[in-house]
Specification:
44% of the residues lie in helices and 14% in strands. The chain is an alpha/beta fold. Helix 2 links the parallel strand 1 and strand 2. Part of a binding-protein-dependent transport system for a sugar. Belongs to the bacterial solute-binding protein 1 family.
């Protein structure tokens, strides 16, 4: 059952000893914010890209309509997956200058903030707004720590999606999207040998981390992948070695683009007929089909198609964006008004179709979720679907572990040494504190 899967993972998260965390973990914040100040709300996120920026703008407009006396301050920091934003946030929290609300991935990523006393529990907020009945219980379990809820989820994303260009696959003689890692490598080779296109587009370094989690899931299976995040997990097994060797082989067919292009540039290469494949979360869908200037205005099935990442069919590698109430928020009433917008049916139904995600609430308007999003909606709500948390997007690795994996990947991109990569991942797991 899905509920058990979530509870099992959160039991692991709750046992985490947050040692050696980021600099922010040593700071407690200040309780000087005015509980009654609703004059403005500063919302901190990393939603600046196409699709996500449109979704935030739609939610902002609804918020301003409902709260005409509150000034909305968009404090978004550019950078895929929040890499830059989290560094800026750490500095602000350390200096006791929190925003009124900030975005964070639901799961282990928030534990540092909780342990450091930097975000407030939201039990009363959930009670006042009757939210426990509209969110899936398994998601509530995930965002609960020691009996308290600390964030308000706005969406669910899928991380394991293969986006591909049907015309390039046809030219390469690839009849169907690959269903296994072995088939994927064969298809990449065919594209390289038979076309002049890039087999697999890649963006900034974090997209290589994202690729790694998909290869691990594809090779190890759901249970094997989930086992990697349990206490005492062994990353030195032959099965992990094989997966890492496959990752190294796949990387030979990629073009690591400049960091400035980020995931958008890598995804765009597929619909621009420059690359055959891209493995990216389903936020890419909003980018593909959205209208200019932030979207590409492309058509599903004509300009691009999608499939589960190779080897991951039947598994939903998930993540959830959520918002928090920082301790000492300068405009606490404004922050709570924003959290009410984030948690509302109207807000989520305005945001998610543009973002390319599905709502966290159970009572969303299903008619708004078409094309790819209809499939995602149905699979997420199918009790037969297996679940795997995205380590890169904060579900099952704390910040230290996350950083150490990223360091190991960065070294691999330089030396291409799979054995050293595995040594780095073994060390990261042993020193994670989980």
């Amino acid at each position: 059952m899905r509920v058990r899967a979530f509870r099992g993972r959160w039991t692991v998260f709750a046992a985490v000893a947050m040692t050696g965390a980021l600099a922010l973990s040593g700071c407690g914040g200040d309780d000087g914010g005015s509980k009654n100040d609703s004059s403005e709300v500063e919302v901190f996120s990393w939603w600046t890209g196409p699709g996500e920026a449109d979704g935030l703008k739609a939610m902002q407009a609804d918020f301003e309509k409902k709260n005409p006396g509150t000034k909305f301050v968009n404090a978004a920091i550019a950078g895929g997956s929040g890499t830059q934003a989290k560094a800026v946030l750490a500095s602000r929290l350390q200096n006791r200058k929190p925003p009124d609300s900030f975005q964070g991935h639901a799961g282990a990523e928030l534990l540092d903030y909780i342990k450091a006393g930097q975000i407030e529990p939201l039990d009363d907020f959930y009670q006042r707004n009757s939210l426990k009945s509209v969110y899936p219980q398994q998601l509530l379990d995930q965002i609960t720590y020691k009996g308290h809820i600390y964030s308000v989820p706005v969406n669910i994303h899928r991380s394991n999606v293969l986006w591909y260009n049907p015309d390039i696959l046809k030219d390469a003689g690839v009849d169907a999207p690959p269903k296994s890692i072995a088939e994927f490598i064969t298809a990449l080779k065919a594209v390289k040998d038979k076309t002049e296109k890039v087999p697999l587009s890649l963006g900034a370094q974090w997209t290589a981390d994202h690729l790694l989690e998909n290869v691990l899931l594809g090779d190890l299976g759901t249970d094997g992948y989930n086992a990697l995040w349990k206490p005492g997990a062994d990353w030195s097994t032959p099965a992990v070695t094989k997966a890492l060797n496959d990752f190294g082989e796949i990387m030979k067919y990629t073009t690591l683009e400049a960091a400035s292009t980020d995931w958008q540039g890598a995804a765009k290469a597929v619909v621009d007929d420059k690359a055959a494949f891209n493995i990216m979360g389903d936020w890419a869908y909003g980018y593909f089909v959205g209208d200019a200037p932030n979207g590409l205005g492309k058509k599903l099935d004509t300009d691009f198609k999608y499939a589960p990442a190779p080897g991951t069919e039947g598994t939903y590698m998930w993540l959830s964006d959520s918002f928090t109430l920082p301790k000492g928020a300068p405009h606490k009433a404004g922050a709570e008004a924003w959290l009410k917008e984030v948690s509302s049916k109207e807000g989520q139904d305005l945001f998610n179709p543009k973002k390319g995600s599905i709502p966290a609430r159970k009572d969303a308007d299903k008619s708004l979720y078409t094309g790819y999003l209809q499939t995602a909606f149905e699979e997420w709500n199918n009790p037969q679907t297996k679940l795997a948390g995205s380590f890169w997007h904060g579900v099952n690795a704390n910040n230290k572990w996350h950083t150490d994996i990223d360091t190991a990947i960065g070294l691999f991109l330089q030396n291409k040494d799979v054995a050293k990569l595995q040594q780095g991942l073994v060390s990261a797991a042993e020193n994670s504190g989980q």
